[in-house]
DNA sequence: ATTGCAATAATGTCAGACAATCTGGTTGAC
DNA sequence: GTCAACCAGATTGTCTGACATTATTGCAAT
């Protein structure tokens, strides 16, 4: 018998649906940074009541995906470069650690999964679909994080990456970024496949630093 | 003129007050781990309406301070040792980094502040007041985190420490833990005062590992 | 152009309601 | 006597509607 199978089916509540929808909307840039979210509008668009919406907004606020100023309401924060830098730095810390641990403990099945996701990114990278690139790249990381053996590390990392989702889309559309990203990711994969802890950390650090540089470039050029 | 002074006064809303009150209540053990929180009870106790309460609960849920199972409502999670371990591991990662950065960049004024908080802990450690010990120790860390130059690091760390607040109270009441904690903290302080990056990291890592061991002991003995 | 003010919009908060779901105890069958 | 089915109360999920307080905007006046 599987020891940790979660039998409890959890019915999806309106609040959960709403949080997911809004989060996705923010990721995909439906709400531009700095734009305000009007409760009454969202209610009618989503077809839900104001209390339900407000609960969802509080969740997103705690995730730092939106800001809520008293008596002004919610808005999508415009991330400054200082904040983004701070996030990238912590992300580096976590991601490097995760890659190192992952190299030591990933299962063969998950390793194949990782390889598959790398292929998916490779395919996306050769296309011009930057949305697909971001998504497949996210899959790649999430497999690494899911196999680092520390769910808290994974969870914190996910929260941070969510907050810079805006940059990820932008920087992927930079000339050549997808290609070099692919090379870096392949390097990470090779290191993990070789069970080489040190190399995985090194490659992972390089990747984050390059991603950060690309994001900075994208921001400065206002792509 | 100060560049980043936040002029905006933010009126404290019912939701904010409620979140703070409930968070404090959880920290101080008013709600035991595993216990359920009944909305109607909380409403009358806090003197607020159900929508306001539910918004506050969603915030706390996103902070992982409470769990909300659909149709069963909110409860204080009973942290397993595996989860606690995961948190301590990430905390180590963040805290070590913060101590190292802090050593390189803390201002003299803040350094004096750090020394003062160490003295406060020293005083608390010689008393039997474990609540005071936890509080003064928290001050010490928060000064380090506030001076590491990365607000995101600080924020994530605060979130993690909040989730293991239960253990901190327990382990501080272990025989001799406060004393040895004081020694470890003094070591960290000395390293930071000496601007010794490496030593600060080393001392900080040792401290977290010892705190983790103490928490494990406290848990196993059910103190 | 700037200031002041009124009208409008939006938020913060509450009260009450109702269906769906969970919980605990009782009843009934074996 | 034990176990399953069931029913009543408790609790949550969600909605509607309301109202005071606080921003925002447009216009008038200086």
Would you kindly provide a written description of the structure presented here, covering whatever features stand out?
The structure is a homodimer of 223-residue chains. Chain A is mainly alpha-helical and 223 residues long. Chain A folds into two domains: 14-75, Arc Repressor Mutant, subunit A; 81-220, Up-down Bundle (Four Helix Bundle (Hemerythrin (Met), subunit A)). Helix content of chain A is 71%, strand content 3%. Chain A contains ten helices and two strands, in the order αααββααααααα. Chain A has helices spanning 14-27, 39-46, 50-62, 81-105, 108-126, 130-146, 151-163, 165-172, 177-193, 197-220, and strands at 67-69, 73-75. The first copy, chain A, has a two-stranded antiparallel ribbon. The first copy, chain A, is globular. Chain A binds chain B through residues 8, 10-13, 15-16, 51, 54-56, 58-59, 61-63, 69-71, 83, 86-87, 89-90, 93-94, 97, 150-153, 156, 159-160, and chain B through 8, 10-13, 15-16, 51, 54-56, 58-59, 61-63, 69-71, 83, 86-87, 89-90, 93-94, 97, 150-153, 156, 159-160.
């Amino acid at each position: 018998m599987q020891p940790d199978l979660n039998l409890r089916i959890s019915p999806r509540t309106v609040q959960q649906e709403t949080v997911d929808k809004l989060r996705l909307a923010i990721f995909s840039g439906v709400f531009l940074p700095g734009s305000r979210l009007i409760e009454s509008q969202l209610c009618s668009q989503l077809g839900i009541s104001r209390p339900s919406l407000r609960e969802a907004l509080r969740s997103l606020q705690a995730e730092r995906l939106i800001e809520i100023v008293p008596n002004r309401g919610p808005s999508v924060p415009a991330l400054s470069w200082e904040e983004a830098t701070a996030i990238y730095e912590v992300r580096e810390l976590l991601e490097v650690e995760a890659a190192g641990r992952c190299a030591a403990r990933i299962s063969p099945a998950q390793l194949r999964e990782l390889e598959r996701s790398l292929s998916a990114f490779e395919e996306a990278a050769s296309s011009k679909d930057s949305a697909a690139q971001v998504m497949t790249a996210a899959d790649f990381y999430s497999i690494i994080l899911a196999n680092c053996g520390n769910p808290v590390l994974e969870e914190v990392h996910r929260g941070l990456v969510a907050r810079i989702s805006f940059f990820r889309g932008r920087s992927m559309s930079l000339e050549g970024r997808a290609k070099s990203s692919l090379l870096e990711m392949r390097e990470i994969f090779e290191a993990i496949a070789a069970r080489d802890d040190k190399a995985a950390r090194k490659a992972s650090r390089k990747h984050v630093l390059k991603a950060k540089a690309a994001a900075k470039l994208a921001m400065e050029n206002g792509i």
